Amino acid sequence: MRLEGKTAIVTGAGRGLGKGIALKLAQEGASVMICDMVEENAQSVVQEIEASGGKASYQICNVAVLDEVNALFEKTLDAYGKVDILVNNAGINRDSMLHKMSVEQWDQVIAVNLTGTFYMTQAAAKLMREQESGAIINISSASWLGNVGQANYAASKAGVVGLTKTAARELAKKGVTCNAICPGFIETDMTRGVPEKVWDIMVGKIPMGRAGKPSDVANMVAFLASEEADYITGEVINVGGGMVL
Ligand code: CAA
């Protein structure tokens, strides 16, 4: 129970990686605000956490819309009075080869993955500077180094790395950490959407020979959110079975 008494917001927590992260933080004792766009998914994660004795609420929020982000923070403060941990996990992909990518595919991915992470991080930074504590964990991706079919996604996730390192430098004096995790190829609805031949290519690049599980990433999030990681900031940590070495 490393997170007893802490309050966490997890974006995109209705399924996949975000759900795994929310369940783990709750298991470690945090009260978790589940942020998602699909009410049914958010509700079911809250029920799952409550059924195992944890604390959670949900708020429907599109992180790419500033008013909705502000409403999410208001709701969290009303419910729990503070925000100790922010996990920016919400993300989308609109994969296409660069020469065929539409402006809409580019804009949608940048809006959610990068601008959404900026809105959320800025709102958290304001609160955490005041309380002089906090941990921000951004979910980037191994794709930030470039991945065929993902010019938009890779650019957004590389942007998240730059945002993370800047936030880390600015917030360090206030006792607030900001780190990024780069999941490799993790079994989620997002990765299940890739063509079979690409699945084989991706798993073929993993020295451990298998795709990861959401819990592999959630374990790293819980560590970075805990006091054990108080002296770690601005890091970009791969969780990918050796996919990026
Ligand atoms: N590595 C190497 N080669 C790849 C590749 C990859 N990751 N992805 C595609 N290619 C190759 C294909 O094998 C193909 O080669 P050939 O022409 O020799 O057959 C070529 O690139 C073009 O691919 P397609 O024929 O599939 O072209 P398309 O226009 O029909 O589709 C695409 C393009 C939509 C990008 C499709 O290839 C695709 O969906 N690729 C998957 C992209 C991907 O890796 N997404 C990751 C999703 S998971 C995620 O985003 C989470 C995370 O953080 C990693």
From TrEMBL:
Domain of life according to the entry: Bacteria
Pathway: Lipid metabolism; fatty acid biosynthesis
Similarity comment: Belongs to the short-chain dehydrogenases/reductases (SDR) family.
Leader sequence segment: none
Protein name stated in the entry: 3-oxoacyl-[acyl-carrier-protein] reductase
SMART domains (UniProt xref): PKS_KR
Enzyme active site: 153 (proton acceptor)
Residue ranges that the Swiss-Prot or TrEMBL entry lists as coiled coil: none
GO MF, one annotated term: 3-oxoacyl-[acyl-carrier-protein] reductase (NADPH) activity
Keywords: Fatty acid biosynthesis, Fatty acid metabolism, Lipid biosynthesis, Lipid metabolism, NADP, Oxidoreductase, Steroid metabolism
Catalytic reactions of this protein: a (3R)-hydroxyacyl-[ACP] + NADP(+) = a 3-oxoacyl-[ACP] + NADPH + H(+)
Ranges of residues in domain Ketoreductase: 6-184
Lineage: Bacteria, Bacillati, Bacillota, Clostridia, Eubacteriales
Residues binding NADP(+), per UniProt: 12-15, 62-63, 89, 153-157, 186
Family matches, as PROSITE patterns: ADH_SHORT (PS00061)
Gene Ontology BP annotations: fatty acid biosynthetic process; steroid metabolic process
Oligomeric and partner information: Homotetramer.
Entry function: Catalyzes the NADPH-dependent reduction of beta-ketoacyl-ACP substrates to beta-hydroxyacyl-ACP products, the first reductive step in the elongation cycle of fatty acid biosynthesis.
EC number: 1.1.1.100
